[in-house]
L-methionine gamma-lyase
Amino acid sequence: MMSNELTRATHILYTGGESKLPIERPETPPIYHSTANIIRDMDDYDFASNGGKYYYCRTANPNRDGVAEAVSYLEKGEQSLVCSSGMAAISTAVLSLIKAGDHIVASRSIYGETIELFDNILKKLNVEVTYSDFTNIDSVRESLKPNTKILYTEIIANPLIEVVDIDALSELAHGIGALVLVDSTFTTPLAIRPLEHGADIVIHSLTKYFGGHSDITAGSITGSKKLMKKIYSDFLLLGGCLDPNSAWLMLRSIRTMEMRVTKQFENARKIAEALQADPHVRYVNYPTLPNHPQRELAAKLMPNGCGAMLSFRVEDDRNKVNAFMHKLKLVKYLGTLGGYRTTIAHPATAFRNEFTPQKLKEMGMEEGLIRISAGAEAVEDLIADFKQALTVFENV
Ligand SMILES: Cc1ncc(COP(=O)(O)O)c(C=O)c1O
């Protein structure tokens, strides 16, 4: 209670900040917006700064810790850090685990901006990166150097939905004392938990399936206590921590993740099968299809479903592909993935500024390649939508 003797200008700065009644166990956690908590004295500061209690938001925040606990549980990891985006998670993890003169072998099929991070920022720090075909373990082996410290990959590679043999990769890396960093955004812990396959660090763009509603930008890093301690000290300096409001929303979204994502996986498989049977579709990339070159590996690594991402190829005709996009009634073209509604993207357009048309073709990103992020709708509505829109490819 504030004294009525204070002047109005002071009183208004202090009044109303304390709850009037005791608050017991609310059904949902409160949002701890406060950037700082009151410190009683110097001893209390020492206690807080040694991890005894919350005192500054960038250092630790209860909402962020709640998300970290959920991610660690899902990934069966010892500890997690929750970052302000997937890119913040990737850059924090990689920058804290390398030093000048180190070498990284990275899959050539990773997220485009991760490649830019490696090429633009790591290069300035004198860290060399070699890109390799991670679907071919011999190619990865040939890329190793005596100073290789990290093997960096995604398990399902965009946009051709190739599968990486994470068990073989971990064995190779650990044989030379290198770490395996996996961006498991596309797979989610519901398809595979990379730490159980020997990976040292698993990273997510939580913006995608964890958030699931296309309304939160966030990322995570999970690993052993020993490695996470190293990463945490740089995380504090790089400053890419998630804000409490987004962390609160993220934990709420994670509550329904299994329901959403299980349905999304199932829808992806059924859409893949329906598109494969459509006369206007040349081929479909999805790991459960009989023609997928790594079908057996995918079934071994991901027995509960191979993710909700697929791609398919139609005629390489820009006008018709545009007409197809216009003709879709439910499905929208979006620059993200993993939301509860089905979306498409056009890889050749997304990578147009980074690669020449020839290089795009060599990488399998022809004009007629369309990527789908399956949502949680009734699958028959999605299949009907795709089928009616595919009629634009009919040759009249
Ligand atoms: C596989 C993958 N990793 C990382 C990212 C970056 O995530 P964010 O946009 O949350 O920074 C993305 C974004 O699309 C992604 O697809």
Notes: Residues 50 and 180 are 30 Å apart (CA to CA).
